[in-house]
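dude i think i finally got it to work??
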Amino acid sequence: MVDITHTIKLQISSHRNPRIKHIHKLRERRTRNRSGQFLIEGFRELSRAYENNYQVTELYVCPSFLAGTKEKELILSFYEAGTEIIELTDDIFRKLAYREQPEGLLGVAPQKESSLEELSLTSAPLILIAEAIEKPGNLGAMLRSADATAVDAVILCQSCTDIFNPNVVRASTGTLFSVPVTESSNEDTLEWLRLKKIKTVAALPQAGKNYTDIDMTAPLAIVVGAEEQGLSSFWKENADEAVRIPMLGVADSLNVNNSATLLLYEAIRQRA
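look at this
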């Protein structure tokens, strides 16, 4: 039996508590940007934050929603790492939770931003560049694919979606903490890629070559864009190569995460 009672520093039972008001406002991008904080909800997401040494400053728990021993062990781990543990009542936690079935764990963490220069690359890097992705679910899903294929980095160009949006964190199932992610402009990204001698391959429906017909074993950056608009003229004009994914039905494009996943796994297949 795991006891977490000694970890609880504070108990909150009022909706008017300033902490509760602040957490609720962290759903808004403006508040996240101003405070430099964001929310991490759920056992799996918080576990991956902990496993990847991502700092969580505050952990709000609701004991009646905890599923079992693993959740309590995670609370102990955060407590030992210096995280402040705060207990909430059922109704307050339910108000703050994004999930219909809350898991009783909600963390507050500082945003960490990195630059292109800080990225650590392997000898034959594989990079995913995502341009102007608008939907948090798509961005989160791409992070899962990037984690599954062990990419060196994900670069968000002309970013439309806040990487720290709670829906990105949730859709990524916590892989936001295992994949190096940075934001940059198209121009700075291309300059950096050329300096590193990394080939760029753009996914374009009108390209002449199938994605299986090019060499993906060299240092490579795969560039994808939102399905509604596709890639901008910048990447159409500046990418080293363009490839298409065969479409045999009436649809003319795939979901951007599906496209990115196919291309990433083709690179992994060739490199294997």
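The radius of gyration is 21 Å.
im so relieved honestly
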